[in-house]
Amino acid sequence: MKTARGFFKPLAIGAPAPWRELPARVERMIHFVPPHLDKVRAKVGEIAPTVDVILANLEDAIPADAKGAALAGTIALSREVDFKALGVGLWVRINCLNSPWHLDEVATLVEKAGDRIDVIMVPKVEGPWDIFYIDQLLASLEAKHGVTRPILLHAILETAEGVMNVEQIAGASPRMQGISLGPADLAASRAMKTTRVGGGHPGYRVIEDPHADGSARASVQQDLWHYTFAKMVDACAAHGIKPFYGPFGAIDDPVACEQQFRNAFLMGCAGAWSLHPSQIAIAKQVFSPDPAEVAFAKRILEAMPDGSGVAMIDGKMQDDATWKQAKVMVDCARQIAAKDAEYAALYGF
Ligand SMILES: CC(C)(COP(=O)(O)OP(=O)(O)OC[C@H]1O[C@@H](n2cnc3c(N)ncnc32)[C@H](O)[C@@H]1OP(=O)(O)O)[C@@H](O)C(=O)NCCC(=O)NCCSC(=O)C[C@](C)(O)C(=O)O
Ligand SMILES: [Mg+2]
After folding, report:
1. Which ligand is nearest to the CA of 188?
2. Where does Mg(2+) bind (predicted)?
């Protein structure tokens, strides 16, 4: 691995200096848009003010014969909407690094939209070597085209090997902004027997012992993704980048979508993907801390101004550790309030 000083060295002469701290951005939902569909792309101007990030998707869900149109649509989109003025992130998901498309995509995106694209999402990342490659490629292209700040990288965690290497992926470059759990490819990669895109499965349960009277035995559905979330969140938190939940494919089940997003939120994730307009509000509500929780967290901070000691609040013990938990909650709420007037009012900032 690189030396401490070498980690932040620009990888190409003339490339912008790498980020030392990630830009502080609210990213509760990453809204996926198929940029080759003019009809959908034409709506982005009205959708953008309602989301934190718009992602132009070039990979899965874009037909092989529409990859060129999706790339052209992405460049057009980057010019049609002033995402910076709206305070909305513009991300692009490129095709995977062994695909015939990614090289032209990265070269075109940096040349034609380098200063307008905030994050490039890389699918099927298997290990740090994938990040080293794209990091070097981007630095050379940014130097060539005079891009003024580094484009960040976001990895999708969607293969068994990627999960095995997630800690090294998270720490592979100062460009790393975050990692998303990709449940569909990951299920296929692990040979899990489910065709669902995220969420639980009625067959994944634990069951009571047999009853002497032969009565029915209670069983409870378990979370298929808990281990993966925990591994991803630890890797991201340790390296100061952000963990996300990816897609929830049951568009027709907003209740299960909310539950999957809430599991991710409670486990430490910063946001999730919205595949459909109906999922935007779900992600916004779930990944904005509950105003009652924020109010309680404020009471903890007030009870221990210097963050040390012990206090009882409504019968619950508070100490240095819960002060830190409360600070996480209040800092997140403050960041959201700065961007979202509705939540600024709800949080009382
Ligand atoms: C699912 C689909 C086909 C249903 O699209 P639809 O048109 O059939 O749905 P609808 O309910 O009829 O649409 C209602 C209205 O919303 C519009 N609309 C619909 N979707 C969007 C959107 N995203 N953004 C903006 N507008 C949208 C749509 O055009 C329509 O407009 P209209 O009323 O004027 O006719 C559509 O929502 C879509 O294409 N969503 C994106 C799917 C996608 O990007 N999938 C890939 C990410 S998941 C993945 O890759 C896995 C992963 C990580 O790799 C791994 O786990 O392995
Ligand atoms: Mg995938």
Report:
1. 1
2. 158, 185
